[in-house]
Amino acid sequence: MKVRTLIQPFICRIIPQTLSPRILTAVFAISSVLLPVSVPAQSVPDSAGPVSTSNRLMVRGFVYAEEILDGVLVDLRYYGSNNFVGAPVDGYEAPRLIMSRRSAEALVPVQKELQSMGLTLKIFDAYRPQQAVDHFVRWSLDTEDTRTKTAWYPLVEKENLFDDGYIAERSGHSRGSAVDLTVADARFPHQELDMGTPFDFFDPSSGAAVESLSAQQRANRLLLRSVMTRHGFKPYRNEWWHFSLIDEPFPNTYFNFPVR
Ligand SMILES: [Zn+2]
User: Which one of the listed residues 93, 192, 211, 239 is annotated catalytic?
Assistant: First the structure.
């Protein structure tokens, strides 16, 4: 299997080193709300852009999505073990949904439209720290560990998850404007619409190969795709649940601050 070299993150210090950790936490908490924190402008020789390690808490331009999106359901899968790794993923320290403010605001009319139909967005992941993506890469290289194969990638060999586009060493999620989501009934018990495959099911049937889907499943996918693309998001052909904001605010920066 082809192993790609990860770009070494660079260090960008934005605060004095002499402050105590408690004070630093307070400074970050305040500055993330009130002060502009510069997004690293330095570049490394890679068209994918730099990985930022400067931001221990959220940088300006990111928000907790629940504070913007009325009634949204969140099931942050990488915070727990109900995911293809089978364990909590590095960098997810709290079940908080973080995304760029621009992408959260773009979801507002999506949610309103769905709510008018008695439906709601249910979001599985949005901002994903680079350390989480690194965890995925480490997991994928450990071909002995196939504990989750039956549930998550029964027909795809683990060593092919890279080449088939399900896992990459850089993810648009780390730029803060990609989101994994589905549609659910807005009423209790929030039944998800049947999309034919579950979230993160690494299989051709989660993408363009839809021959096995029922008419209802196709219609459900079309509903999600239609409402998202009408409000500025583009779909990903391999995964019905993945969308990214076309006009993303941080197109060249891969953030690494933890989700907390
Ligand atoms: Zn995604």
Answer: 239
